[in-house]
Amino acid sequence: MKTRDEAIEWSEFNPSIDNGAMQERQKVEYEMTMNLLRSVGFCRAMEMSQIGWAEQLKDMLGISGGEFVVGPCAGMTVTCKHEIVDKNGNCEVCAGAGWITQGVQKMLDERKNITELAQDVVDSEGAFSAVLDILHVIDENNINY
Looking at the structure, do residues 89 and 133 belong to the same domain, yes or no? Predict the structure, then answer.
């Protein structure tokens, strides 16, 4: 196996580079990266990448907030339905990630149920008892708006 420097020198400065040379370089980088990830831990490496990216953006461009953010495990997420969008059509729930946590989806579903129940109040004659029902649901679920 070539070292990283050997692989870079061999593939980047060789004018007759072919697909095989690039594949060899990618294999070397993959092995080196996997060794690093196993030594520091995958989560810690992602966290450090996020921190490093943020520092680099600040140092080089003077901006903050542009770094990639690592989220929860995929098993704890669901696909975002993009129910709340801004005037440009951007999702305000997932910020374009395409996924949200199961807890966020539950809160969205509860919000929708409360909104539908409130609409029933407007449409029905028993408004007072319906309002009490809504307040009971909100209190029961500890939902704060």
Answer: yes
